[in-house]
Amino acid sequence: MERPLTSNIYPDRPPLNLKEYEKAGGYIALRKACSGMSPAALQKLVQDSNLKGRGGAGFNTGIKWSLVPMGDEAPHPKYLIANADEMEPGTFKDRVLLEGNPHQLIEGMILAAYAIQADIAYVFLRWAYHEAAALLRKSIQEAYDAGYLGKDILGSGFHLDMHLHTGVGRYMCGEETALLNALEGKRATPRAKPPFPQVSGLFGKPTIVNNVETLCCIPHIVNNGADWFKGLSYSEDGGTKLYGVSGKVKKPGAWELPMGITMRELIEEHAGGMKSGFQLKGVLPGGASTDFLTVQHLDIKLDYKSVAAAGSRLGTGTMIVMDDGTCPVGFVHNLQHFFAQESCGWCTPCREGLPWVEKILLAMEKGEGRKEDLELLQMHTQLLGPGNTFCALAPGAMEPLQSALKYFRDDFEKHIDHKKCPYD
Amino acid sequence: MLTAIEKKAIDHEIELVPYRKASVIEALKIVQQHRGWISDESVEEIAAYLEISPAEVDSVATFYNLIFRKPVGRHIILLCDSISCYVMGYRLLHKALEEKLHIRMGQTTDDNRFTLLPNVCLGCCDHAPALMIDKDLYRDIEPALLDDILKKYA
Amino acid sequence: MPTIYIDNKPFDVKTGKNLLEACLSLGLDLPYFCWHPAMGSIGACRQCAVKVFKDEEDTRGRIVMSCMEGVKDGLRVSINDETAKAFRSQVVEWLMTNHPHDCPVCDEGGSCHLQDMTVMTGHNYRRYEFKKRTYTNQYLGPLINHEMNRCIQCYRCVRFYKDYAGGKDLNVFSAHNHVYFGREKEGILQSPYSGNLAEVCPTGVFTDKTLKEHYTRKWDLTNAPSVCQHCSLGCNVIAGERYGQLRNIVNRYNGEVNGYFLCDKGRFGYEFVNSENRITQPLIRNQTIEATTHDKLIQHVGKLVSGHTLIGIGSPRASLESNYALLELVGKENFYQGIPDDLAYVEQKIVDVLQSGAIHTPSLKEIEQADAVLILGEDIWNTASVMALAVRQSVMKTAANHTTEQIPLPSWHDMAIKELVQETKGFLANMTVLPSQLDEIAATSMRAAPDDLARLGFAIAHILNPSLPEVPDAGEMINTQATIISKALQQAKHPVIITGTSCWSNALIRAAFDIAAALNGGLAFVLPECNSLGLAMMRAPSFDKAAAHVQQTTNTTAIILENDLYRCIPAIEADAFFSRCKNIIVLDTLHNRTTERAHVLIPAATFAEADGTFVNNEARAQRSSQVFMPANKVIRESFKWLSDIKALQTTAGNGHERHPDDLLLALENRFPQFAGINKVAPPHNFRIHGARIPRESHRYSGRTAITANMAVSEPKPLQDDDSSLSYTMEGYRGLPPAPLIPFFWSPGWNSGQSVNKYQQEVGGMLKGGDPGIRLFEQTTTLPTFYRDVPEAFVPRPDRWMLLPQYHLFGSGELSVYTAGIASLSSGPYISLSKQDAERSHVKDGDMVSVKTDGKTYTFPLSIQESLPDGIVLLPAGLRGMDALSWGSWVNISTEIV
C-alpha cells in the first residue's frame, strides 16, 4: 500500500532536511514543472487527478485553481496560501504533515503557486504549532537558499516569495475568507462569496487558499500522474487520505490510508478498537462540525460521497469516537460551547443562536432542562442551516446537534425526566 | 514608546504588506512577545507607529483570544477544552489545576506565576487530554502528572 | 428592466439593485437592520430573508438574504413563504434574547426601527429564559448618549462612523456575542457627524443627548419641515416642538442636498431657540418703562420712520421674506447687505458667475458622484461640514467605480467592494491655507496663502486651456501640483471644483471659475451663512456703503434686521456707524452687542417660529416652515413686523404683503434673478382634498389638557395663515408634497426608516421631486474667463496677513447656544507658522498680541506646522471675539505679556 504523503515521516526521527528530502525524491516534481510544464497543464493534471480539498469542503482542487485569472491581463500580485490553521476540534492531521515533512508542503505550495502564477505565498499557521513554525521557518530558508524560492526559480522565470504567518487564535481563521481578513490585519470575520478569493482575495487580489494536506498531494501527482493518484483510492475521490481517530480507542492516532477505507477498518484495525470496558456509541467522522454516525454505519466507506450518503460529512477525516460512558448531552454541550465561543459575532443567528443552544444544553446537564427545550434545540438545528447564516460555522455546529437529537434522543429525554445527568 | 527592537521587528513586517496598517496583528504579537501582554499604552504606541487610531488597533486586538489585553502571569497554561480532551478527562484536569493553583479559569496566581486559560483544540487529540505551558506541549496528561510539570516553571 | 415575481406576482424592477431595495421600492414591507440605502449591504443581520425559487417548478426554494441577492429577470421570490417568515421572526427573537426590553424608558421608543421590525415579523413572546448579557456604557461627550445593552449588533454605527464618515474613534471590539460598539476608552466622540449615530442605530444605543434634557416622544412632537440655519448648504431638517420649546432636529431627507446625514452643528445647534437670552419683549429704550406693546411700538416706530432718512441693513441669516420686507420698507436704494465690503465683493463675484449661466454648480449629491474633486482655498471641513462628507463619498465611490470596471460587482455590495478596493482612493486635491482631516483622503494637498492658491488655480486653468494666461514665475511647487491636478481633472468625467468665501479672496473665485469653465466641470461655492447667497442675489451694497451713507446725514433711522454687526464688522467701524445714526431699530432673536445699541428693539421669531425661504450655496431656494407659534405673541416673524411698519406708510387696505407667498412673488417680480422662487413650496392656501397637512402625528397626546394650567377648556387649534400646514392632528394623512413633509411616518414604520415610503425608489428622490428650486442653471452662454492672475504672496518683514480660522464648533453665532457645542468650541488663540514662531522666538502657549482695528488682541500662540509663512490666523466668530479686518496686514507683538 502506497503512502506517498507519510512515507518519509517517521515518528521517532526528526523530519527530513532539504538534502534528505531531495535524496528521497524531493523537488523533482518542481524541476519537472519548471522545465516546460505550463501552468495550464499543471492545473489540468491536478483537475484530472480528482484531488479534492482536504480541509473539509471537498471541492476539486484543479477546478478551484482554474477560476484564477491568468495571462498578461491578470491582476498581480496573486497569492497562494496554505491553510495550516488546523483548529477543528478532534483534528490533528495537518500537524503530522507540518512537523513530519515541511519541505513536502513547501514544494506543493511552489507547484500550486506556479499553476496559478502566484507571486507571493503564505503559510497561515495556527499559533499553537510552535514546532511546526520553527521547522517551516528553517525549511523556507533552505528552499530560498537552494533556489526553489525567490527570483527565477530553477531558471524558469517564475518568481515566488514565501512567508510564514502565525495566527493569534480564533477558529474562524480556518475559514478561507476570514483567514484573508486575518492576513490583512483585520478581524477574522468571513467575507461574502461571490466574489470568490480566486478573483478578489488577499488585498483584493486573486488568491487561492488550500489545505496543507491538499498541497502535500501536489508533488506526488506531478511525479506520478493523475491516474496513479486516482488509483491510490478505493473510491472515486482520488488519492490517499490522512485519517485520524481520537477518543477512548486503544491506539488513537493518524494514518495515511487509501481514500474510501471503511470506518470499521479504521477504528478496529488501525485504532485497535475500543478500550476495554467501553462500547462505541457514536462517531463524528470528520471533526466537530460533522454529523454523528453510529454503530450501524461502521461499514460505510470513508469517502466524500459515501459519508454524505450516510448523513454526515467526511470533513477533515479525523474522527472523534464517543463511547457509551460519555454523556451525549455533555458531549454536544462541549461542542456548542466551542462554536459559541468561536463565533465571530458577525451574523445574528450564529452570534445569538449558538449561546442559546449552549445554555440549554448546560441547563439539561445540570438537570434544569424542560420538555420544550428539545423543540428549541430542534428549531435551532433547522434555522441555523446553510444559507441562513453568513458562513458555515453555525451550520457546522448544528450537524452534531441534529444527529445527536436523532440518535441519542432518549439521553436528552432522560436528562429532562430525571432532572439530572444519568452519566454523573 | 516602542523599543528599537520592537520597531525593527515591526518594520520587517511592514515591508511584507502593501500598507502599514496591514501589519497590525504582527505588531501586536511582537509587542506581546516582549511585554507579555498588550496594555492600553501598547495599543496607543502601536497605533501611532502604524498611523492608525487606537480604536482600530484595539478592535483587532480584542478579537483574537491569544492577544492578552490584561496582564498575565509569567507562564501561561492553555488547557485544551475541546471535544477529544473532554472525552479523555479534561474535566478532571481542569479541576485539579484550579485546586493546585487556587485560581479559576482566566485568572492569574497571586505570585504571578501562572495564568490559566481555556484553549480550543491543540491538535494532538490522539494524545488527549493535553495542555500547553508557554510553548511546551504536554500530552496524555493525568492530574497526577501535574505537579512534576508545574514545578518546571518558576 | 427585469421582471421579477414576488409571491407569483410580476413586478418590473430596476437593474443593478438588490432584492431588498427592489421590494422596498415597490412599497412592500420587508424587515432589515444592517442594510442602509446610503451604505449598502453586508448580509450581517440576516433579517431580510426571503425565499427564492429556481423556476416555476421549484417548490422547495432556498432562503437567501434579499440584501445580498441582485435582481435578475425572471427571479422568483417569496416574501410570504412560511419558512422565510418563521426565520425572520426567529432573527428578531435572537436579537431580543439580550435586548433589555426597556422601551418605556428608552429614548428610541416610538421611533424605533427595532420595535417596528419586531412587530413586522410577528415575534411576540420570548422563549429565552437565561440571563441577559450586559455591558458597561461609555461617556461619549455632550451630544451622544450610549446604552450598549440595547445593541443588536447590526454594525451600522461603525460602518457609518468609520467607513462612511471616516471617524477613527468608534469601533467594534471583542468577538462572538460579546461584540461591543464604542470607543477604545470613554471620551468625546471626535467625528463631527456623530449625531447621525442616533439615526443609523436601529435602536436606542446611540441617542441624542440634547433631547434628553427635554425629552419628548416622536409622536408628541409638533413638527415642520425646516432648513438648517448653521451654514450655507441648507441641509433639510425636521424640527420638533413641545410646550413651546424646540426639542430636537432630525434629518429630513433630500436626495439632492443632505441625503440621509447631517453634521453635529446642524443637528444639535438648535438650542438658541430655547435660550434665556431670547428677546421676549419689545423695548423702547430711554423711557421710564422700556417694555412696550405691539401697538405702541408700531406707533413709536412710525414716528422714527417718517421724516427721517431711512436705511435698512439686511442679514445673511434672515429669510428672503424678511430681507425683502425690509427692502420694501426702506426702498431699494436704502437697503444694504449687513456684511463688509470685501466679503460682499467676493459674494457678488459668485452671484455673477452663477447668474452668467456659463458653468454648472453641483448639488451635494452631484459632488458625491464626482470622480475628481479640487478644493481651492475653502476649509470645507469647518465651513461646510456635510460637503466634506460628500467629498469623502466621491473619493470612496470613484475608487470603487474604477475597480469594479475590471471586476464587476454590484454597487450595493459594500463588503465585497471594500475588500476589492482596499486602500485605493479617488482623486481629491485639497489646496488650502490650513490642513484638515480631508488631507487624509486627498491624493495631493498643498498649503499656501490665498493668492498663491489662486495662482495655482490659474496655472491649472492654463494647462487645461493654453489660451489662458500662464502664471508668471509660478515656481516648482505650483507647476508640479498644477500638472498633477490638471491631469486628474482632464481624465475625469464629472470633475468638481470647490471654492468659497472663507479666505475673503475673490482671486480664488476667479481662478476656480477659470478652471471649471476650461473643463466644463462643476463649480461649487461655499458661503458664510444660511442665506448669504439669497441676500447677495438681491445685489444690495455692502455695509461699508451704508456707513458712508450715514456720514452724509444727521437724521438717519437705521433698521437692522437679524444681524449682529459686531460679528462681521470691526467694532471700531460698527461703533462709528451707530454713533452716526439718530435712531436705531433692531429686529433680532437674541440679545447681542448690536441689540444693545438699539433704541427700539423688536423681538423676532427664529427659523422655528417663522416661515421663510433661504437660498443655499447652489442657489437652491428652500422653504423652512414654522414649527410652532410662540406663546409670547410679541415674538413675530421679522417680515410681519416690517409689514406692519410698512402699513403705516400706505393707505389702509392697500394690500401690503404679509404672506411669504406674496413677498416671494413681489421679490420675483422685482428681481428677475429670483424667477420661479414662488414655487419653492405650495402656497399657503394649498389643500389636499380640502385638508391641510398636520404638523402633529395622529398619536399626539394630551391635546385636550396641554394648556390646562391656563384654562381647562380645550383651546381652538392655532390657525396658520401662512402655510398649508396645520397645528392639529387632523388633516391629510397621505404623502404631502415633498417641501411640506413635516415628519416621516408610515403605518408600521414609526422610525425615520419610514422615509423609504416617501421616496420614488429607496435612496432616490422624494416622490414629487426633492424640495427646492434651483434658481440658476447652466445655459449655452460661453464663459468669459477672468485671466487675471494675482501676484505671488510675499511675506512682509514684521507684518503678517490676518486670516480667519473657522471652527465647526465655535464659529457659529447661534449654534454655540447649545451647551454641548459651546463646550467643544475652541478658545481664542493666535496661530503662526512654525518658522515665523521660531523667528519670533515664541513657542506654543506664549501670549502673543495682534494689533488690528484699533485694538490689541492678546491670546496664546498655537503653532500651525504647515501654515505658510507671513500669515497670522485668529479664530473667526468665537463668542465674544470681535470681527477683524480679515485679509489686512497687521503687526504682531511677541513680547511675553
Structure in words:
The complex is a heterotrimer of chains A (424), B (154) and C (897). Chain A contains 17 helices and eight strands. Chain A has helices at 18-23, 28-34, 39-48, 61-66, 93-100, 102-116, 130-145, 176-183, 212-224, 226-231, 263-270, 304-309, 328-342, 348-365, 371-383, 393-407, 409-418, and strands spanning 79-84, 120-125, 161-166, 207-211, 240-247, 253-258, 280-284, 318-323. Chain A has a four-stranded parallel β-sheet with strand order 3-2-1-4, sandwiched between helices. In chain A, strands 6-5-8-7 form a four-stranded mixed β-sheet, with helices on one face. Chain B is built from seven helices and four strands; from the N terminus they run ααααβααβββα. In chain B, strands 2-1-3-4 form a four-stranded mixed β-sheet, with helices on one face. Chain C has 897 residues and is of the alpha/beta class. Chain C folds into five domains: 3-96, Ubiquitin-like (UB roll) (Roll); 103-117 and 125-274, no CATH class; 283-339 and 535-707 and 714-731, 3-Layer(aba) Sandwich (Rossmann fold); 344-527, 3-Layer(aba) Sandwich (Dimethylsulfoxide Reductase, domain 2), CATH 3.40.228.10; 800-893, Barwin-like endoglucanases (Beta Barrel), CATH 2.40.40. Helix content of chain C is 27%, strand content 16%. The longest helix of chain C has 22 residues, at 385-406. At the A-B interface, strand 3, strand 5, strand 8 and helix 13 of A face helix 2 and helix 5 of B.
